[in-house]
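ZP: hey, is the magnesium ion complex queued? I don't see it on the tracker
AM: it wasn't, my bad. submitting now with these inputs:
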Amino acid sequence: MTSDQRVWVHDFATGSREMRDLLGGKGANVAEMTRILGADRVPGGFTITTEACVAYMESGGATPAGLDAQVADALARLEAQSGRTLGDADDPLLVSVRSGARESMPGMLDTVLNLGLTDRSVEGLAARTGNPRFAWDSYRRFVQMYGNVVHGVSGERIEQEIRALKARRGVTEDTELDVDDLRELVTTFKGLYREATGEDFPQDPQVQLDGAIRAVFDSWTGERAVTYRRLNRIPDSWGTAVNVQQMVFGNKGETSGSGVAFSRDEVDGSPEPSGDFLPNAQGEDVVSGVRTPRDIRELADWQPAVHEQLMDILRTLERHYGDMQDTEFTVEEGHLYMLQTRNAKRPAQAAVRFAVDAVAEGLLDRGAAIATIDAASLDALLHPTFGNLDYTVLARGVAASPGAAKGEIVFTAKEAVAAAAEGREVVLVRPFTEADDVAGFHAARGILTSEGGKASHAALVARGMGRPAVTGAGDVEIDLAAGEMRVGDVVLRAGDRIAINGTTGGITTDDVPLVEPEISAEFLTVLGWCDELRTLGVRTNADTPQDAAKAIEFGAEGIGLCRTEHMFLGDRQPLMADVILAADDEARTRAIDALRPLQEADFEEILRTMAGRPVTVRLLDPPLHEFLPHPHDLPEGSPERARVESLQEANPMLGTRGVRLGILMPALYEMQVRALFTAAAKVDGANVEVMVPLVDYERELELVRALIERVAQETGVPDGAYTVGTMIELPRACFLADAIAHYADFFSFGTNDLTQTGLGFSRDDIEARILARYIDVGILDRSPFETIDSPGVGQMLRMGAWLGRKTKRDLKLGVCGEHGGDPDSIDFFHHSGIDYVSCSPFRVPIARVAAAQAAIGAPAGVWA
Ligand code: PEP
Ligand code: MG
């Protein structure tokens, strides 16, 4: 097919939700809504495909061949359907031109509304509607938006002009400006346009349409969109679709309005629909947070019939999509139009509540309900809340995103990023937020704004990221220029501490304790369903009885990795140093004898806590010098310093660590094994698995296994009362897993070291030094230490699993690297024949959900 024949444009009437990749989320859903609700409810229009955007980008900004003609045809069809013509002097058609990528990127891409207005057609619109104020308000919005979006006229200059005019007229609201004021603004904005472009504002609607389409394409590669994609792992190659839709007007007077509506409460998920609306306003007024919107329930008082229709539509859409919906609507002189619907991004508590209710209502079965949950977002349910409810409330705002946070105040996203890089905890405080602030959301512990409601930019982005947020705190006065926030006569500056509770809307300067979360009854229900559906076991990585107890509370079925090195730090470090630095065998034995009872007590307590669940204890792994003082802290010329210096290595991560310690200093491993077996003998039902780290060669494991078996005999532990296994965390071990398996009862893949050695990336350095650039230039879309590099490292793991099971059909296989708590990696492990994952206690619930999603084939960690 030549590019001339390619279909770049689809009318809404011909699209469907299955065409999301091509039409973008918005285009596909508008088409779907047109089918379900009827053309009467959804203003007509067409979508320019994401492929057209990709072709435009690839050609360096040339419109693909055939696109202009197809747009002209689609426009002609829209004109015929609406009975109006773009730019008509009597009764003009006006259109919106909106972006719409495959995944929603709220506020990151550009939109132009009211396109088609010119000096001539504005008069036509005024005459036809008998509402000159509306016509001129629409025109000033268009000149403003077109100038800003298509030609970069400064938004700040525009706002200044509006503020100045309102001040001259002595009014506070935009709606109080009259027709003459609006005409004046149009002239002023045209002047700004001329200043910025050197040209007059275009009076040919075709030129306007072309410009707007290009601007939307270009916004895909704009800085804020690129930043958003990096944070949300959206590929650059997708491109955005462009939706051209007939305008309907929420700013046509007191029986018109605009709003956003969720089919259920978007914060807690309760079944009552929620949202905001503004009479006599266009959609951007509601989301920008500039005017404080009214609660959707008040729609019933304002226009009862519209309210009823909207509630009915929300139910219909939710049933159709089988998921909670987030919609935008406009009421034009009493007629309700639906502009958009999408599966609602929601905080974890709402996701869980929806899943449970959807099953109870018969809307979804358990598997489908679990698939609606973004497993990674559940982190938020495991976040702290205020421990002390008796704090002094400084001010209150809207509870926009649940969870509590405290930290130093910062007033800009930049400062938030810089502070986070220094390891400081900060709360980002802004009057309202914009797309450019997103990096700051990521860096801050919480967000506080003085303006905007639950659907404001700040609220949406914070919920999407699981950051606690309080918005619309009207009593908080934020003076960015002075670098202060004021509440009554309390003045706070950057660096002062503040705490916010995004679950209740409370703000305080008290140093409230943050307490660990309790798992709600609904979350427990969901986790119970996940346990029935999943086939992958979930264990925890825990080195202390406290961590072990927490993990059991979160549903861990055992310990998959008990790292023993932490047991030799702190007070015990000198004892460990004595072992390593001992001048002779006798001195070493004495030092080891001193350590053994301590180690034994550690194991006993952990085994008791785990009450018969399997506990995988890993023998010592890190390089020995980690337990020694720094040579510079020892007297120069002393034998001790010389010995410490002799133990320093150029590449400690590739040095004397792991099983190599057991070969070079068997007394250490022997002490650990003896302590473990002695402890196990004291605990009823102790279920012990001894794990040997960093094995390369089968002979290494053979030797250490022999040592373990000997100690077992010496301590009277019968065969079969314990198992011996190894970590598989080096490439050679994957390739030779069949040979290694002869000496192993189980494998546990150490995907941290396997990633480090498989990719040759230092696990301690890559994230700070290399990752950002690698993501920028499209080599990586996330850290391979966070999500398994499935085509490379993942294939080594699969080879290890396959070869291991070739030797022993029932070889038990686990994963205990950080990837064990990452939903995408869990999906991969599920499909690699792994028996269980092991992750930090707080990731255990996430792993249970992700494992169930993997079992039912739901995409892991991806929003529908
Ligand atoms: C691993 O390498 O994946 C692992 C779990 O061990 P550690 O992180 O302790 O090296
Ligand atoms: Mg390791």
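AM: back. Residues 860-864 have pLDDT under 50 and may be disordered.
ZP: great, adding it to the tracker
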